[in-house]
Automatic annotation (TrEMBL):
Keyword Metal-binding tagged: yes
Protein name stated in the entry: Protein-lysine N-methyltransferase SMYD4
Domain SET: 185-474
SUPFAM superfamilies membership: SET domain, TPR-like
């Protein structure tokens, strides 16, 4: 059963009983999120509509099944699919068992085939720390010798992006705002009735400047990336270690495995297979993890309850989302109040939308009550407060997630060698980035660094002192007409966009004409900088070209800004984005070969 079918089942039962109107009126009468979820939880219990958690344990049969699948594709030289199957075999293998060693052994063979000699040696060394089968010893020694020979001869250049030019493009330098430590002092957070909290420029900002560099509250890896990345830090390290208990989480190190366990995974671990199998959305899973981490950030429930009370006292003043650190107010994603106080838009939501989200929250609550000790209070007198807190914050964050969580992505190589397709990797809560309002013609752009959760904000257009910074929520004038954008933004974000592109009905890229009245020297420079060869090299992901073109392109955008919207300006903006994508990390074609697998295996 999926969470969607669970909800549809509830609606069908209530419709048959003629209770939809009564339920809606009751929900409207309730004033807190906790009351809403607990009411729906009781209702689902009455309807016998609460799903059960399916336990998935590590077993040799499932590990063997995936190892055999890996062997089949490895014979066909399909290394990246083989890598995924061997990681599945590793996840399902009882720890330190023979099938665990065999999964590692086979994975090391893939690394050798991929010429990943360091990774191959690391897996072999890991096997040698265990009591591995005698039949493996000769094979491992031979593979180790081969690897060491290649490793010694190898003289490949590994680009670490630490040269001065690259660092200037990738790292926020200069003074940061002590109150908003992820942001440059060139920015200021202000409030107005019309725009709510938003960010403006304290001084003139040039195209290409780094304005914000923010680490998230946590990251949530997407299922498509489970077998390629660290579930905690998103590292693309290939020598991934399995969770010691569940069959879904891989980690780049023992340190990440321990941190994940302490922060949230100890609670999620037993539930993971069911959460994935029921197709909860990333936004719903983000909400669940937020609640778990919020509690685990505190030594006891009393601490969290006090934090929430203080955060809600500050909801309508300038310290909304802030905490006191060493006596000073700070707004930072590492502290829960910055996430707790993000906008939920509940006043703009229909009762059916609230009910659907309350059903999801009630199912999460049921899983936590029946399968974990997460709700165990500090003392008996706290039981009701803890129950209300968990129920309420689950619904709160299910409502805040759609408008405040951000995706992390990069470009992946296509079959023809170009890097023009986007690949989603993870999602995460970023408190500062959530302060940015939307424009269909944004003046800033976000990029995440591959293998990390770090999000960086760049100026995409010149921003004058006092001007507001505008991000893009997914509806861009170059790609969609005004009506399509307005409908999409009203549906997900509950507002009518009044940006310059909407007010002036700017054309899509395909409708744009060449810039008029632009000095000939600017157009000549644009044609010289962004010629066919340069565009081709950028599409191929060439780092040298990206480094060479970045500054000239930023200067061209400055020069072309007065003529917006026009095709030449759009070309330069998209090329700058491509430069940043290249410099922040690309993914080779093999990673597009995603294998299909079930969180609850059909094989027993």
């Amino acid at each position: 059963m999926s969470i969607d079918s669970c909800y549809e089942n509830v609606i069908a039962k209530l419709t048959n009983q003629g209770k939809i109107k009564d339920i809606s009126q009751k929900l409207l009468s309730l004033t807190t999120n906790g009351e809403r979820v607990l009411y729906v939880y009781e209702l689902l219990g009455t309807l016998k509509a609460l799903p059960k958690v399916t336990a998935v344990h590590k077993t040799e049969n499932v590990s063997l099944y995936y190892r055999n699948q890996g062997n089949q594709v490895f014979k066909n030289k399909d290394d990246y699919r083989a890598l995924q199957y061997y990681n599945l075999a590793l996840l399902h293998a009882p720890l330190k068992s023979e099938c665990y060693c065999l999964a590692l052994s086979n994975r090391s063979a893939v690394f050798l085939s991929l010429k990943k000699y360091k990774e191959c040696l690391q897996d072999i060394q890991e096997i040698q720390t265990m009591e591995y089968p005698e039949k493996l010893k000769d094979k491992m020694l031979k593979r180790q010798t081969t690897c060491e020979e290649y490793f010694a001869k190898e003289n490949e250049f590994i680009h670490e992006s630490n040269d001065e030019t690259t660092q200037k493009i990738l790292k926020l330098e200069g003074p940061r705002d002590p109150r908003f430590p992820c942001a440059s002092t060139k920015l200021e957070v202000v409030f107005s009735e019309e725009m709510g909290r938003h960010v403006i420029a304290r001084e003139d900002i040039k195209v290409g400047e780094i304005l914000v560099q923010e680490d998230p509250y946590f990251t949530l890896l997407l299922k498509s990336q489970f077998l390629f990345s660290c579930s905690y830090c998103l590292s693309r390290d290939l020598n991934l270690l399995p969770c010691t208990k569940c069959c879904l989480s891989l980690y780049c190190s023992e340190e990440c495995r321990k941190k994940a366990w302490v922060e949230y995974h100890a609670v999620e671990c037993y539930l993971m297979a069911t959460l994935v199998q029921m197709d909860f959305t990333k936004l719903e899973l983000l909400a669940l993890r937020t609640v778990i981490k919020a509690r685990n950030d505190h030594s006891d429930w009393e601490g969290l309850l006090d934090t929430i009370k203080e955060a809600e006292r500050n909801m309508n003043n300038e310290y909304r989302g802030h905490v006191k650190v060493d006596g000073e107010w700070v707004y930072d994603s590492q502290y829960y109040p910055s996430i707790h106080t993000l906008a939920s838009n509940i006043e703009k939501r229909s009762i059916s939308d609230i009910f659907q989200k309350a059903v999801t929250a009630a199912v999460f609550l049921h899983f936590l009550i029946t399968n974990t000790d997460f709700l165990k209070p500090d003392n008996k007198s706290q039981e009701e407060a803890v129950l209300n807190c968990v129920a309420g914050t689950l619904l709160l964050h299910i409502m805040t997630s759609p408008t405040n969580m951000h995706g992390l992505s990069t470009n992946i190589q296509t079959w023809d060698g170009n890097y023009i397709e986007e690949m989603s990797i993870a999602s995460a809560p970023y408190a500062y980035h959530s302060l940015l309002n939307h424009s269909c013609a944004p003046n800033v752009v976000r990029f995440s660094k591959l293998g990390t959760g770090q999000m960086t904000l760049y100026a995409l257009r010149p921003i004058k002192k006092g001007m507001q910074l505008f991000d893009n929520y997914g509806s861009h004038h170059a790609l969609q007409d005004r009506q399509s954008r307005q409908e999409a933004l009203r549906f997900q974000y509950k507002f009518t966009c009044l940006c310059e592109a909407c007010v002036n009905n700017w054309p899509t890229y395909l409708q744009m004409t060449r810039c008029r009245n632009v000095p000939a020297n600017i157009l000549r420079t644009k044609d010289k900088v962004l010629d066919a060869d340069a565009i081709d090299e950028l599409q191929k992901g060439d780092q040298g070209t990206a480094l060479k073109l970045y500054k000239p392109l930023c200067e061209l955008i400055e020069a072309l800004e007065p003529y917006a919207p026009c095709g030449e300006l759009a070309d330069c903006q998209e090329s700058v984005k491509q430069c940043l994508t290249i410099l922040r990390g690309l993914v080779p074609y093999g990673y597009s070969k995603i294998v299909q697998w079930d969180a609850v295996p059909k094989v027993k």
